[in-house]
Amino acid sequence: MKTEYIQALTTHARRGRLKNAFRYRVDYVLTPLPMQSPALLTQNRFNLWSLHDQNHGGERGNGQGENWFKEVLRHHGFPLDRAEILLLAQPKFLWFQFNPVSFWIALINGSPRAFVAEVNNTFGHRHCYFCAWDDFRPITYDMPMQAKKLMHVSPFQKVEGEYSFNFGLTDDAVNILISYRNGDEGVLATLAGKRQTATNGTLIQAAVARPMGGLRVLMLIYWQAFRLWRKKAPFLRKPPPPEDLISDGKKWREGQP
With contact defined as beta carbons under 8 Å apart, do 225 and 22 qualify? Predict the structure, then answer.
């Protein structure tokens, strides 16, 4: 499989007493590692766009790339000999990298059977949520998977409640819904876009249309935080990150049929 480019639309809608909603375009790549990619996108080497193992798979800034995800899969008894491993992430733009969430995906016969949502906050912390059914049957968009929220993401939300992941990956598109709920409060977040082979042309268009890459995303996050502060949303102190890097799906998964 060649590296694919996804011009995705992400939306966030805050639920509860205080409402806030926004949407914007983001640039993702979906790729096996090592990558088969055009000249302007490289692995572990500076470029206009790049992916670096140290930024994915394991501790933030000290990642091990695909090898880390394979170890996670082995720990859960996943049949690695039949698996295709993909990474869905926002690539680094020139010198700057930031991914609110990336996904490691394990496929068998073209359908996702396990994934890890690699969540990063703006305080330098990371927590990973492992998702798979016990028998590793296909994961489809219409069958959400639940996870207990364990890491501080927003200063306007407590480290309580649950995430629900609706994960859709077809031959043509990516469609992901992450729902966070804590009582009557919560957030709906989506990531959706069509899959297309990455080319130098699409990468240049992305750089022109949305310059700065992850830095632009980080600035948008701070802008939305300012809007919430202006609306007098309660500002919470930053708690320490969870001791464990990854939540074991066999412990926290709930509501499984």
Answer: no
